[in-house]
Every structure is written in C-alpha cells, then in structure tokens.
Amino acid sequence: MKIHTKAVHAGDRKRAPQNIPVTTPIYTASSYSCESMEQLDRVFGQEEPGYCYSRYDNPTNGALEELVCSLEGGHGALACASGMAAIQMAVVTALNDRRKSVVAANATYGATVSLLMKVLEPSGVAVRFADMCDLDTLRAVVAEARPGCILMETISNPLLRVAQMDRIAEIGREAGAALVVDNTFATPMIVRPLELGAHFSVHSVTKYLAGHGDVLGGVVVTDQQHFDSLRTLSRAIGPVLGPFESYLTMRGIKTFPLRMERQCANACRVASWLSTHPRVGRVHFTGDPSHPDAPAIRRLFPANLYGAMVSFEIKDAGQAEIFRFMDALKLVVRATSLGDVHTMMLYPVMSSHREISPKHRERMGIKEGLVRLSVGIEAPEDIIEDLAQALG
Length: 392
Prior knowledge:
The chain has helices spanning 3-9, 37-44, 59-72, 83-94, 110-120, 135-145, 165-175, 187-190, 224-237, 243-253, 256-274, 294-300, 319-327, 358-364, 380-391; strands spanning 76-80, 101-105, 126-130, 149-153, 178-182, 200-204, 218-222, 280-284, 309-314, 333-334, 344-346, 370-374. It is an alpha/beta fold.
C-alpha cells in the first residue's frame, strides 16, 4: 500500500464493535472499566488487549500510533506530549540495557543538545559529539566511547546536512549501539529510518505530520526488539500525548503527503531564487547539486523530494540586520516552528540554538547571519516576492 493511501486509512475504523465512526473519535476518559474484575485484572496485566488507564494506553492515541507506525514501517509506536519528550523516551529506552553512553551528531537541534548536556549527562550518561558525515571519524569516536546509543537527525537542523544513515546503522550494530534518528525534517515521505537499519525513528508531530500549527506533540516509532521496553518505561514516566492532540494529528496526516509534495516543490523554487540574490551569501538546501552530501542524498532520497527546509546566510549581517530583514516580511510568518502550511522563518541564534554558547554555535557552523526558512504550500511566486521586498 502506498504512503498516500496509508495516510488516509491507517488507524481508523477499528476501535468500535458496531456503528463504526469513519474517523477515530476523541476518547477523553482517563480510566476504563470492564465487565468483571477478572477481565480488568487481565487488561492491567497486559494478558488481554484493552484499556484501563490513559497513561498506559488510550484508543485515540492508539489509532495515531498505528497510523504513524504504518507510515514508518515500524513494529510499534508511542505518542508523546512533545517532540523532545519523544527524543528522551527513545534515548532512555535505547540505553535501558546498554552502556550509558551516547554519541550524538555535532550539528543538531539546540534543545537536543540541552537534553544531552543538561539532563542526561548530569544523571550519569556519557555524551560525545561527532561529525556524522565523516564516517572514519565517527567510527573512531564510537570505538573509543563504546556508546549504547547513537543519536542523529536525518536532515540536520539548521544546516541541512545528510549523513549516510545506513552506514551509520552498520557502525552502531558492530558496536552494539542502538541508532536513534530524529526524522522530523525528512518525514517518512523521504526517508524511513527503520528500513535503513535504525532502531528508533522520532518525530515532532507538531511539524509536518500535523502540519497546521495547532498541535504540540511527538511520536517514537521502534522495532520489535525495543517496543516492550518503550511501553514499559512510558507507563512509569507518563510522557503521553492527549487525545485531542492525537485526533488533530491524525486529521493533519490525511493530507500530509499532498502537503509535503507541494512544500518540497516550493522549496526547490525558493532555494533556486535565493541562490541568485546579491544579498544572499550562501544557501543550504538538500536539493542543491553542489550540496556537500549530494551523493548520500541521491542514494537515500526519492527523486525530486528534498524536504522543505531552506537555510541561508545574508552577507555581512549581524543580529540588527537580521531583525530588520525579518521585520520587513509581510507574508512569511516569523515564528519558532516549521512544517506548517504557511511559510515560516526563524533566527537560529535567537531561538532554536539560543541556549548553545556562541563558541559552540560557531563550531556547529551557525553564523550570526543565518536564517532558517520552512517553506509552506502558498504560491511560490508570493513567497519569493515577500523575500525579495524584505531583502531589498
């Protein structure tokens, strides 16, 4: 079954015995009763399918989990209250019966760096960073650190680097490490990490999957080996998504493939135009034939689907110049997110990587003049016209 069809049908019409609603309802109950105490005991003990408490499972959440799991080709999933909660659940599950050591991509989302350095490392997890695009260096770091988990992004935030995920999965397997991949930027339309050897694929559903700026949530998709441990830890930690958010995410996913195709096409148009503008010093876009990771992109990505993120640097611009440029935007929304139907822009130094020290940002390649653009579904001519008038 193709992904467009899965997005419309998976998860729905399975959780009512008769008079089946065509879309999954919002089940708001926190607790569930059974016909007998014996049956409730079996449900609590996971000896019989059913629901007893929404921290453990919820019918609306279950439908969303089935849907995203189908899109990603996984064994099971867990819907979480945010993308960061999903990242944490994936890493904690990966380390549950492994050495408490993580090797993470050296260019990644700022909040992920904070999770590693401010939450996991103080609790006893050793953290190392490595260039995922340099396999020889990565192999050496993994051999030295002996990690229980390797953490990377399919498309890095915000410089849009693409590592050879299947090769990294091989390095991880040789070292006994689980591979956790943040697949938010790529989505399962472009890459399905578990098919390339990853153990966990994580999404902020706030972004492309829900797609309309009205949901905060995350999801972890995993393989059979780690699924029971993921659900067991979730019962104890309780990071679960609410049923209203699950419902909205399912509704958004029904049009996600159509939106993603349009956004990818628009991003190609916008990136091509930006590369010709005299005020733009450099454009970061995975569809650029001169992209430093072009061979990996050609091998791992489907034709003409490169993602909808474009980062670019304005020549000789510091914070004041970037603020003036962004204040001049009329159509493009200045906000901290991505993947919505409307085009959005943020300033990484101020937002996504604000908590990273200037020296660390410099090592990551995030300059003062860099902005990140999430291209929406509008007419590309209108997006370009707004960028042009703001650039001057």
